[in-house]
Amino acid sequence: MSTATFVVVLERKIFRGGPVRRNSSHFYTRSVWRGRAMLAMAMLPLLILATAPVKAQLAGDGFGSSQVVKATGQAVPAKLQAAGRGVIVIRVVVAFGYHIQSHHPLENFLIPALVKLLPSRGLVFSAVRYPAAKIIVVSKDITSKGKLSVFEGRFKIIVPFKVLSTAAPGRRTITVSFTFQACNDHSCLMPQTLHLQMPVRIIRAVAAPATILPTKTPLVPAVRPRATGLARPNAPRSNASAVAMELNAINALHYQVSSPSEPIWQLVIFALLGGLILNVMPCVLPVIPLKVLAMVQQAHGSRPRAVLHAAVFAAGIVSLFLILAVLMGAYRAATGQALTYGMQYQHPWFLISIALVVLALALSMLGVWTVQPPQALAAIDTSGSGLFGAFCTGLLATLLASSCSAPFLGIMLTWALVQPTWIVALFFVLIGIGMAWPYVLLAAFPAWLNRIPRAGRWSELLKEALGLVMVGVAVYLLLSTEDRTQIVVGFALAVILAMVCWGWGRLPDVNMTHRKIWTIRSGILAAGIIAGIFFVDFTGGIPAGGNAAADVINSHSHAFQVNRWQAFSPGRMLAALRAGHPVVIDFSAPWCINCKYVKATVLDAPAVRHVYARTGTVLFSADIDRPVDKAIWLKLGGRALPYLAILSPHRPVTPEILRDLYTQRDVIRDIHAAVR
Q1: 317 vs 299, residue with greater confidence
Q2: Which of 443, 445, 417 has the alpha carbon at shortest distance from 431?
Q3: Residue 260, preceding bond cis, omega within 30 degrees?
Q4: 548-675 and 66-202 share a CATH fold
Q5: CB neighbours of residue 361 within 10 Å
Q6: Residue 64 — left, alpha, or beta (φ > 0 → left; ψ -120 to 50 → alpha)?
Q7: What are the percentages of helix, strand and coil residues in the chain, rounded to 5?
Q8: What is the signed CA dihedral for 266, 272, 275, 279, rounded to 10 degrees?
Q9: Separation CA 50–CA 64 (nearest Å)
Q10: What is d(CA 64, CA 335) in angstroms, rounded to the nearest whole number?
Q11: What is the 3-state secondary structure (H, E, C) of 550-599?
């Protein structure tokens, strides 16, 4: 018998068993309420005992998880001199009965304990030292191996670090993110990321020997005995200086990469042609559904209206190119860092935000919800041609297309992005004009568009099918983030957004008043925002991309393999060149569709692979989201992706550069030239 049933039965026993004078309603009412009050006081201990197991179960299934794992951090010592060394001590306490996976789980699907450090000016971090893991036996229903590698109880995680000799005195804040998932014998809690901050003070700077080594060491004495100008870094004494030595080794290299020498009028043509070709590039795949719908909407309409629609669409394209140029110029003025095309895609928040916009648009195409422009804009758009939607479509098309470059753009961007901001803005506007003018031209002369059948059921089916394509694009963008926590947060926000869009479009009814409809929608929107903020805060936010600590992992090894893609490091590159091997460095990023297309169709083609094997080519994959990889990319003149560098062991400082989209013949030609 449940507690509620017991209360009802007991109440009936009390008020039906005793002598109650029913002829007096006042007396009867007072007796009833007095009896109920006495009954509530008697049942209070019973209710507490009944709900105690429920509370315990909730606490064990993910509620109150902050009490399960606690972590504190401390920098020892808190004051250091320049060129001094210290350690970061992270003390972790896991509640009794719980464990977290070690940093090397026995199964790929398990979430490892992971410590990441954000870069801090003047400090260089070493590899993270985790405690020894404990192997526990579990049911094979949990893992096929029947065992887990875990951390339990109290333990410490150590991160050595070093203060650079050139570090200015002052205070620093070391920020550490600690990601883990706590489990017990029955269930697992949500993965968490704790952010710890530790103050450090540098009290004075002491001159120290430079870590840049001589640049006149012979590269391959047996082949070319004269000096080549390449630095030859010795094996690092400790992990603490690994990243600094890698960056110093890159800075010591003096590559002779020819800058564009074309006249201005030719660069202008390159900008217009590059914008035009951008319409058919793989990186523009996400906006193809938008362009198809735009052309279908222009069909069977009056020519002036079609031209106006296309002109507003083109204005959206050009406007966002101009906005990007101004923002990039402001970023360079504020940070002093070099400009790169598509740099906004290096931030996980930007990728997730764009994915959510694409998902919302896809759900609108699928009929889940509709969005109307503000009344002021709707009043301006009296023609009914959807000018607000056309302008927003142009903005989104440009934003999605700005991740990679097209043929002719690479040469133009290499020159333009090192010029003053107004020149950058001018050439970005030219790119936008080159990308947008075909739509205006097709609208002015829509002969072949008139062959499209008139709108009907087929056009609705087409819109829904393209909506499904856009859902796939949103999933691709979410998976382009490099961190597992970023992917989890992105998909969770996508689910929340989908629920908000569904509630926005489905819960209001046409029979409701306008005020009631917007009250419902406002409540749904507010609930979605609160849920999103709560989830992001619960998971500890979105960790930033690559950091100095991650770059130390492979810095010690100078071992390389022939005809096999491997992570880039300056030590491996120099070792391969000294051994007489040509080197290929493929610069890419997880969000670059063009890069994946080129690697699949050109760099990994059988004919090119055969040349790799025959010439002993060493292959490196470089991700520009990582600091060291981006440093060598900028050193080689990189400003846009895709970007390929081919280095010869005989002429190591004069690499061959292939930009944008290139062919198998181009790669084979330059590799043969590198071995001569």
Answers
A1: 317
A2: 417
A3: no
A4: no
A5: 21
A6: left
A7: 50, 15, 35
A8: -120
A9: 20
A10: 41
A11: HHCCCCCCCCCCECCEEECCHHHHHHHHHCCCCEEEEEECCCCHHHHHHH
* Separation CA 586–CA 575 (nearest Å): 18
Q: Hey, is 174 helix, strand or coil?
A: strand
CA distance 636 to 632: 6
Question: What average pLDDT is seen over the chain?
Answer: 75
Task: Compute the distance between CA of residue 383 and CA of residue 169 in angstroms, rounded to an integer.
Answer: 65
Is there a contact between 201 and 168 (Cβ–Cβ < 8 Å)?
no
Helix (H, G, I), strand (E, B) or coil at 616: coil
Q: How confident is the model at residue 621 (pLDDT cuts 50, 70, 90)?
A: very high
CA distance 524 to 18: 52
Residue 123: predicted pLDDT: 86
Q: What per-residue string of b and e applies to 115-153 under the rule 16 or more CB within 10 Å gives b?
A: bbbbbbebbbbbbbebeebeeeeeeeebeeeeebbbbee
SS3 per-residue string spanning 449-489: HHHCCCCCHHHHHHHHHHHHHHHHHHHHHHHCCCCHHHHHH
pLDDT at site 617: 93
Three-state DSSP class for 115? strand
pLDDT tens, residue by residue, 567-619: 888 888 888 988 889 999 999 888 888 888 899 999 999 999 999 999 999 99
pLDDT-derived band of residue 247, with 50, 70 and 90 as boundaries? low
Mean pLDDT along residues 456-477: 82
Contact 503, 391 (CB under 8 A): no
Burial class (CB within 10 angstroms; exposed 0-12, middle 13-18, buried 19+) of 4: exposed
Instruction: Look up residue 368 and give its two tokens.
Output: 């889940």
At the top level of CATH, the class of 66-202 is mainly beta
Question: Tens of pLDDT along 284-295?
Answer: 766 666 666 666
Domain boundaries, the chain: 3-60, 66-202, 264-358+370-456, 548-675
pLDDT interval class at 163 (50, 70, 90): confident
Domain 548-675, CATH = 3.40.30.10
- What is the distance between the alpha carbons of residues 163 and 158, in angstroms, rounded to a whole number? 16
Q: For 63, phi and psi rounded to 5 degrees?
A: -90, 135
Q: Is 344 left (phi over 0), alpha (psi -120 to 50) or beta?
A: alpha
Task: Please check the confidence at residue 503 and state whether its pLDDT lies above 50.
Answer: yes
pLDDT at residue number 371: 63
What does residue 228 show for φ and ψ, rounded to 5 degrees?
Answer: -115, -10
Q: Percent of the chain scored above 90 by pLDDT?
A: 15
The tokens describing 84, both together, are 């001094």
pLDDT for 235-245, tens place per residue? 444 444 566 66
- Kindly give the pairing relationship between strand 85-94 and strand 154-163: antiparallel
- Average pLDDT for 25-41: 51
SS3 assignment for 348-405: HHHHHHHHHHHHHHHHHHCCCCCCCCCHHHHHHCCCCCCHHHHHHHHHHHHHHHCCCC
In what helix (H) or strand (E) does residue 198 lie, and over which residues does it extend? strand 192-202
